[in-house]
TrEMBL record:
<dbReference type="InterPro" id="IPR019775">
    <property type="entry name" value="WD40_repeat_CS"/>
</dbReference>
<dbReference type="InterPro" id="IPR036322">
    <property type="entry name" value="WD40_repeat_dom_sf"/>
</dbReference>
<feature type="repeat" description="WD">
    <location>
        <begin position="40"/>
        <end position="82"/>
    </location>
</feature>
<dbReference type="GO" id="GO:0007010">
    <property type="term" value="P:cytoskeleton organization"/>
</dbReference>
<feature type="repeat" description="WD">
    <location>
        <begin position="1"/>
        <end position="39"/>
    </location>
</feature>
<dbReference type="GO" id="GO:0006357">
    <property type="term" value="P:regulation of transcription by RNA polymerase II"/>
</dbReference>
<feature type="region of interest" description="Disordered">
    <location>
        <begin position="239"/>
        <end position="267"/>
    </location>
</feature>
<keyword id="KW-0677">Repeat</keyword>
<dbReference type="GO" id="GO:0008360">
    <property type="term" value="P:regulation of cell shape"/>
</dbReference>
<dbReference type="InterPro" id="IPR001680">
    <property type="entry name" value="WD40_rpt"/>
</dbReference>
<dbReference type="Pfam" id="PF00400">
    <property type="entry name" value="WD40"/>
</dbReference>
<dbReference type="GO" id="GO:0005634">
    <property type="term" value="C:nucleus"/>
</dbReference>
<protein>
    <submittedName>
        <fullName>BRWD1 protein</fullName>
    </submittedName>
</protein>
<dbReference type="InterPro" id="IPR015943">
    <property type="entry name" value="WD40/YVTN_repeat-like_dom_sf"/>
</dbReference>
<dbReference type="InterPro" id="IPR052060">
    <property type="entry name" value="Bromo_WD_repeat"/>
</dbReference>
<feature type="compositionally biased region" description="Polar residues">
    <location>
        <begin position="249"/>
        <end position="261"/>
    </location>
</feature>
<keyword id="KW-0853">WD repeat</keyword>
Length: 267
């Protein structure tokens, strides 16, 4: 097999260069002399993620399609931490991307199954307020184009950016409780009755009928206790100004020929 470099990254102070090769090895090089210092062994598939620590020049993170995430000490050529992304009942999930937090105390990864993995120090309480599975109910809804070639949501026939805020659902399309629906921008101040989605029965491509969110209840902005939408107010104001200009133009337009000019109307 002809070796190919899949990723390359400099460490924090640029003294070292780490390359990922398609033979599953990571190689650590002296960036000044080009000397090979270490071969890092551990991955079993190609690596497309190399992330340097934001301030510790010794630390490098690697992750790949084998589901492995390694924290390396590249000055010694040793692995410090290892995590294997095993998904129950589905095997491992390939890791597609990773990023350190600015303070270097946490890092987050995304995998091929749509999971966000968060690693770090301290307790996980700040992250426990949200459910494990979160999707918008409109995430995989089909789109169509109208006669002007504009994109519309197939079900509601509305432009996606003009639709009400979506509902949060799990992977099977079941809506989450109202306390989670308030996490969606635009639904923070909604009354409880506006946080309950309309459910209906939808046929899947396999012919199976399942219960899913099929519609949205829009919020009445005039209801007491709710803050009006700034964007909706601007749209209404622009429409009112346009109507006023149109009315003024119609009033000022001549109703017939003036000074003998123009074409007379037929009876």
């Amino acid at each position: 097999m002809k070796p190919k470099v899949t990723m390359i990254a400099w460490n924090q102070n640029d003294n070292y260069v780490v390359t990922a090769v398609n033979n599953h090895l990571l190689k650590v090089w002296n960036s000044s002399t080009g000397q090979l210092l270490h071969d890092l062994v551990g991955h079993a598939d190609e690596v497309f993620v190399l992330e340097t620590h934001p301030f510790d020049c010794r630390i490098m993170l690697s992750a790949g399609h084998d589901g492995n995430i390694f924290i390396w000490d590249i000055t010694k050529g040793t692995k410090t931490k290892h995590y294997f992304n095993m998904i129950e009942g589905q095997g491992h999930g390939a890791v597609f991307d990773c990023k350190f937090s600015p303070d270097g105390q946490h890092f987050a990864c995304t995998d091929s199954h749509g999971h966000l993995l968060i690693f770090g120090f301290g307790c996980s309480r700040p992250y426990e307020k949200i459910p494990d599975q979160m999707f918008f109910h409109t995430d995989y809804r089909p789109l169509i184009r109208d006669s002007n070639n504009y994109v519309l949501d197939e079900q509601t026939q509305q432009a996606p950016h003009l639709m009400p805020p979506p509902f949060l659902v799990d992977v099977d399309g079941n809506p989450h409780p109202t306390k989670y629906q308030r996490l969606v921008p635009g639904r923070e101040n909604c009354a409880d009755e506006h946080l309950i989605p309309q459910l209906g029965y939808v046929a899947t491509s396999d012919g199976e009928v399942v219960e899913q969110v099929i519609g949205q209840q829009t919020v009445d902005q005039e209801e007491p206790g709710l803050e009006p939408s700034i964007l909706d107010g601007m749209i209404r104001q622009l429409q009112l100004e346009q109507d006023q200009r149109t009315g003024a133009d119609q009033e000022s337009a001549p109703s017939g020929p003036q000074n003998g000019e123009g074409t007379p109307r037929r009876g």
